[in-house]
Amino acid sequence: LFATSPGGGSTKDENGNPKFDKNKVSFDSVLNALVSIVSDAVTIVVVAIREGLPLAVTLTLAYSMKRMMADKAMVRKLPACETMGSVTTICTDKTGTLTLNQMQVTKFWIGEEEVRNKSNTINNGLVELLHQGVGLNTTASVYKSSSSSEPEFSGSPTEKAILSWAVKELGMDAEAQKRHWEILHVEAFNSDKKRSGIMTRSKEDKHMINVHWKGAAEMILGMCSHYCNTDGIPKELDAEKRTRAEQIIEGMAASSLRCIAFAYKQLGSENYSSNDDGQDDVHKLEDEKLTLLGLVGLKDPCRPGARKAVEACRDAGVAVKMITGDNIFTAKSIAFECGILRADDDDIDGAVVEGKTFRNYSEERRMEVVDRICVMARSSPFDKLLMVQCLKRKNHVVAVTGDGTNDAPALKEADVGLSMGIQGTEVAKESSDTVILDDNFASVSTVLLWGRCVYNNIQKFIQFQLTVNVAALVINFVAAVSSGKVPLTTVQLLWVNLIMDTLGALALATEKPTKDLAKKPPVGRTAPLITNVMWRNLLAQALFQVAVLLVLQFRGESIFGVNEKVKNTLIFNTFVLCQIFNEFNARRLEKKNVFEGIHKNRLFLGIIAATLILQVLMVEFMKRFADTERLDWGQWGFCLGIAFLSWPIGWGIKWLPVGDKPISKLFKF
Fold first, then answer.
1. Which residues are catalytic?
2. At 133, is the secondary structure helix, strand, or coil?
3. What are the angstrom distances between the C-alpha of 355 and each of 52, 317, 384?
4. Could you tell me the fold of the domain covering 104-144+151-269+284-299?
5. How do 257-267 and 209-216 pair as beta strands?
6. Where are the membrane-spanning stretches (predicted)?
7. For 149-182, what is each residue's pLDDT tens digit?
8. The pTM is what?
9. Under DSSP, is residue 182 helix (H, G, I), strand (E, B) or coil?
10. What is the CB neighbour count within 10 angstroms for residue 660?
11. What is the pLDDT of residue 6?
């Protein structure tokens, strides 16, 4: 081996072949031979190990993250970019995501009568009770400056809408309510019970104590034994009247209205007392035998682009599930309006379920029905978490939207957590992977498309790099075994790694999403990263390159009539140019037209031009550094002609169909 290495022995045997003779080999020649062997080994290792892949993935993720900011999505965790491309199910909120979150009271019922002209038809005593129930039992506030005629409202959209309606339609003075009544006890809104309540006492008459409740209409109705009509007279809520009230609630819910009910109960001073220290002795608020004051229906319109975005997700093979706290009729109506449910869907009743029902299912039953569920109404944050866990156990890749603090567990549990930038709390944002800056579901579908683009770009780079790997490894290995010398030196292969790992990664990372990505099914959790299509493409190119380079290695000197150094330069130049031309093939894994849209990607074209210029400099002007020789025009033409052949080969091989079953399963890896 020393004798066949550069600087090895010069002794010949009787047949004229080099022979190792320890007496005639100097220490320097042995050392040079050892260095040459180690250098060749390092060269092969450098080719075999894809040390540039982490850089390529990071470049792709970072570039996409910057571009997603322009599409109203702020990525907090880089891996979420790629994971979003594998998502199979999106669990989304309704309010503010599918809808505009611009609540407005459009219906008002008292008893069995819909009230249209409020000021003239309602008893003053009943109006005063409604003022108390709205103005005191709220987390919103009203501010009216002396210079402004229009009051300003702050709080949640639902609270603001009810407060605005009471001020403008019922003539409520919120400040007057606070001056005349003191709040003794508050029961804050509870996502399980869907209600909030207060106990108030008149500041003029200490014996006048009222309990007011506000919340989901069907929940409040179940607490009532009486109701008021427009003349303010309480009447018994018998079975017939209760049924009629339920029909009114269902009718409003079917019109996509959120139904809120108000009820109260008057207490005597004997129901309330102070302890020995003079402090108020507060008991649990009375929640039985209440009197129903009225029902309001709030409209929250669907976002203009919500239906189109949902349809885009469905076309991409991604299931959209709506999880909301609204009642089942409102949820179903909104789902139809947004396209989550369609009239031609099978088993619509099975696609809609209440959170309590889903929660009470057995584990086996939940796993059986979770795929069919499209809408979950009257759900709690725990129900959302439970659904995410069930979907993940069925190998779904799940994305979840959330804006509240109590959504944090579901956002963390999901593969991709999407918090809302406007309505979202800081806890929700910290628990998420991506923040949707405009709270719009259309932006969620855009993030999905970018995720697929990232995944696709990584696959393009892997195909491109494996082609380089296979070709370089085979040619160097075969040459080293057969002749003891490698045609591609360490410096040349490091040069290839430098331009292909860095510039090649940047070129393929800058590809933007295409419409074709939106029509492909999701890859899911178990799909292989290197697909059969990629194997087909890279093996075809690698075999072509290996065949050409081996011919040049063993017959190049005789074909071109050149010395060994020029031959090695031809091999190096042909190899690099083949990679540059193959970079175009890598732009499209399946489509035959690899030049589609290339004029829009100026960065790609710029990188290709820069790589060509650097290669010319490497061959023609850096001979000592790269160990190359200058080539004439004919030799350059030959190298370019061979590289050009990679385009028709790439086009032709894509006519060859491939199966869907991964190669690893075919060979049982």
1. 93
2. helix
3. 48, 25, 8
4. Calcium-transporting ATPase, cytoplasmic domain N (3.40.1110)
5. antiparallel
6. 41-64, 461-481, 493-510, 603-621, 633-656
7. 678 888 888 899 999 999 988 889 888 999 999 9
8. 0.79
9. strand
10. 8
11. 45
